[in-house]
Write a structure and sequence with these properties.
InterPro entries: DNA2/NAM7-like_C, P-loop_NTPase. This is DNA2/NAM7 helicase-like C-terminal domain-containing protein. It comes from Lophiostoma macrostomum CBS 122681. Pfam families: AAA_12. By secondary structure, this protein is an alpha/beta fold. Among the domains are: 143 residues, no CATH class; 165 residues, Rossmann fold. Helix content is 36%, strand content 11%. It contains 19 helices and 16 strands. It has a five-stranded mixed sheet with strand order 6-8-7-9-10, with helices on both faces. A four-stranded parallel sheet has the order 12-11-13-14, sandwiched between helices. Strands 1-2-3 form a three-stranded antiparallel sheet, with no helix packed on it. Helix 13 crosses helix 14 and helix 14 crosses helix 15.
Length: 568
């Protein structure tokens, strides 16, 4: 890309590979009207720093309208419009020139006007990327596509499925990526990477063109080296938004976070291919500093990235300390259906694993997003990642399994009470928990609610919520107490029970225990409304354990949607 920017557009022909990149990374809003790709393939252009899958999915929602408006024919090519010229670019312009292309017009050049326009957009995109700007466009339509058909369509569009004579399908069994596309990092960064890590970009390209090695064989050292690069130099990569549909996770993360699949490729330019295997079943979250590496995980992952059994972590999210989840929602919203599709395809719980400072692994099953338990509710990326970030960082593994769903229900109960019950009737609402890690989780969740409400001028009702852990509630008094605990952790904290009971007895309005029992023995049924159930508990003065996942499927239970600044 940097090389392309240095060219004189009036004297040198446009590099075909860079032209393809300009189509993938130029923001949609900045392209002239009528920029489309024909014949049911690429119908529009991907936003900057967005994975290729986004572009191919985006076109599906508008394919009929786009074709009618543009008057597209049946030939494969690009119809490119500028204010001064209109040029049909053949399929040779779509593919990197590292192999034979079945086109009689492979040497066809583009007009100066078109070339000038592309170079101008490349410069603008490069400037925004270096400034760390984030692209905020999201899909409004949910597209029903199988993840394998998505990968197959992407491979076909790029001529990598064998149809164009460039690459054979078997060469992509582990989702190799043409090395020429690594120029998205920019020429300066590439020179640095080549010098420091001695990455054999050119050697791999020559071996592929000469047929001496398959893509997988030629790119293996490149991929291994890039894995280390991405880990140690994550801030060099302008990854801002990752988006996919139907069987693929939808999530959003800041520019200093890096997605890698089991091969160690950057998610921003490999995700369209990695889904040709099977969808992931877990995310590994590491909260160490951005320039550190958890060697136990990465060394094992890098050792044999092409082995079919090398599924240590299909995706890995490395997040720096000080990661503020509410910022993510300024980029995009995450909706429940995409998450549920992941669970449905994976046929197991959506598991999130974290590492604390001692590299101790703790497991936390996020059962609140199981397809069997969730009906008509929505969840935001802030809520999911906020719970994950805190719940997995200092919790003993045997006690962390239910902490997320417990926290969600407890916080929702507190917020519902604060919103629905006037302050004159219910002054203080105490969120009480047994151990410090749960307190951090509850506090952060409530704090995010308060922050978003403050932005929208709604501050009063949530200020009544107080969060305390087991060693901090002596002398406290509250009108209502919500005790967030997990059944398994409860066994280890029996010494708290008498003190908790004393505190709960002081509550004039009532109390609620939030736990993980599947059945509510006292009621003999699941509650339809958490608030009415809480009031019933208060009236009967009884401590009842309820199931978080069961409650979340109830309509009245609200789940945070920070992007809209209110609670659902």
């Amino acid at each position: 890309m940097a090389k392309c920017l240095q060219k004189d557009p009036t004297t040198e022909p446009l590099d075909k590979t860079l032209f393809m990149q300009s189509l993938l990374y130029t923001p949609i809003e900045e392209l002239p009207d009528g920029t489309h790709v024909v014949n049911g393939k690429i119908m529009t252009v991907a936003p900057r720093n967005t994975i290729a899958t986004n572009a191919f999915l985006r076109m599906e929602a508008h394919i009929k309208a786009v074709r009618e408006r543009a008057g597209l024919g049946e030939h494969l090519g690009i119809r490119f419009h500028t204010e001064k010229a209109e040029e049909d670019l053949t399929e040779s312009m779509l593919y990197p020139d590292y192999g034979p292309v079945n086109s009689a017009d492979a040497d066809e050049s583009v007009t100066d006007e078109t070339q000038n326009f592309i170079l101008m957009r490349l410069k603008a995109s490069h400037k925004r990327r270096t400034e760390g700007a984030q692209f905020k466009r999201v899909l409004d339509e949910r597209i029903e596509l199988d993840h394998k058909s998505i990968a197959a369509r992407v491979l076909q569009i790029l001529g990598c499925d064998g149809s164009k004579g460039i690459l054979r399908p078997q060469d992509f069994d582990t989702a190799d990526y043409p090395p020429e596309f690594l120029t998205i990092f920019g020429e300066e960064n590439l020179r640095y990477y080549k010098k420091v890590y001695a990455i054999p970009f050119s050697e791999a390209t020559e071996d592929i063109r000469a047929g001496r090695k398959t893509n997988k064989e030629a790119l293996k050292p490149v991929i291994k080296a890039l894995t280390i690069i991405l880990i140690q130099n994550s801030t060099h990569i302008g990854v801002t938004t990752s988006m996919a549909q139907s069987g693929i996770v939808t999530t959003y993360f800041p520019a200093n976070a890096v997605w890698t699949d089991e091969m160690g490729l950057a998610h921003s330019w490999s995700s369209a291919w990695q889904w040709s295997q099977q969808p992931f079943a877990d995310i590994r979250l590491w909260t160490g500093a951005a320039n550190q590496t958890p060697p136990q995980l990465f060394n094992q992952q890098i050792s044999n990235p092409f082995a079919p059994s090398a599924r240590i972590s299909p995706l890995l999210l490395k997040v720096s300390q000080g990661f503020h989840v509410h910022k993510l929602n300024r980029c995009a919203r995450a909706r429940a259906p995409e998450l549920l599709e992941v669970i449905r395809h994976a046929n197991k719980d959506f598991t999130i694993t974290g590492f604390d400072d001692r590299m101790a692994e703790a497991d936390a099953s996020v059962k609140l997003v199981r397809a069997s338990n969730v009906k008509n509710w929505k969840v935001s990326s802030a809520l999911v990642f906020l719970t994950v970030q805190k719940a997995t960082c200092s919790v003993d593994g045997q006690h962390s399994k239910y902490c997320i769903e417990t926290a969600v229900v407890a916080v929702n109960a507190a917020i519902k009470l604060a919103e629905d019950v006037p302050e004159e009737h219910l002054k203080d609402i105490l969120l009480l928990c047994s151990y410090k890690a749960m307190k951090e989780l509850l506090f952060d969740m409530v704090d995010r609610y308060k922050h978003e409400n403050r932005r929208h001028g709604r501050t009063g009702q949530l200020n009544r919520i107080i969060v305390r852990s087991g060693d901090e509630f002596q002398g406290l008094q509250a009108d209502y107490v919500i005790y967030a605990h997990c059944a398994e952790s409860w066994k280890s904290f029996t010494w708290l029970e008498p003190r908790v009971n004393v505190l709960l007895s002081r509550a004039e309005k009532g109390m609620t225990f939030v736990g993980d029992l599947l059945q509510i023995t006292k009621e003999g049924r699941e509650p339809n409304n958490l608030l009415s159930f809480a009031r019933h508990c208060a009236k009967e003065r009884m401590a009842v354990q309820i199931n978080g996942a069961a409650l979340l499927k109830q309509g009245p239970i609200r789940v945070q949607d920070v992007s809209k600044g209110h609670l659902r």
